[in-house]
Amino acid sequence: MTTAEVALIVSGLALLVSIASLWANSLRPFKLSLLHDAPTFKLYKINPNVSGAEDGQTWWIPSFDIGISFYNTGRIPGEVLDIRIVAELAGHRSNRKFVFYPMWIVDCSRFEQDRTERFKWIKSAILRDWYPIMLGAQGEKDVHVVLESDRWDHKESGEMKLTFEVIAAGMREWSRCETYTLPISEDMFESTSSYTPYDEKIETLRKLEA
To answer: If we measure between CA atoms, which residue out of 186, 145, 181 comes closest to residue 163?
Structure first.
């Protein structure tokens, strides 16, 4: 091998290293990573005294809230377009499907303080309506989100299977993040409590021997 050939190979390797470094530092595409806690479920009772309904009807607003940390592992900015919780309720009356979409980003501490009083936290805790979140190069964003579905006109009972999903720039379909199970009983409709669903993956890990 001649000196010229060796020099050419070294130059080629240096070029490859430069290209790899450029890609890693400047051109690595947007890629979403996220961490989140388990969603918390709450039913808000809306009676005629609140709604002013002339027919005397009472209904309930089903609501989830969840804390999420979004992180872009790439060097090119990108958007978190939307999140959702798909709930399938296997009830005694029928099987139903509900989709919960994000409504607001809230101040977590104020929200927790007024969680049982819907109209109070709406006034005190909402930071802004939900809209897509832009993440810069290796950018991070922590949010606490309230997701809601259509109102429930009747009490339900049964087992509700939940799937938390996200979609971001560059994705062609929703990406499943986690699944949960939440039993629904009629007692929940008259309670001011909130409920955390069963996380099978976490519970399995906790049963491993120390």
So the answer is: 181
Between 24 and 32, the more confident residue is: 32
> Are 20 and 41 in a shared domain?
no
> Residue type at 118?
R
Report pTM. 0.83
Pairing relation of β-strands 32-36 and 78-91? unpaired
Domain count along the chain = 2
pLDDT at 4: 59
Q: Is the pLDDT of residue 179 over 80?
A: yes
Give the largest CA-CA distance in the chain: 95
Domain coverage including residue 12: 1-29
Backbone angles phi, psi at 51, to 5 degrees: -85, -25
Q: Are 1 and 39 within 8 A, CB to CB?
A: no
The whole-chain average pLDDT of the chain stands at 87
SS3 35: strand
Q: Are 180 and 38 in contact (CB under 8 A)?
A: yes
Percent of the chain with pLDDT over 70: 83
Check if the beta carbon of residue 181 is closer than 8 Å to that of residue 201.
no
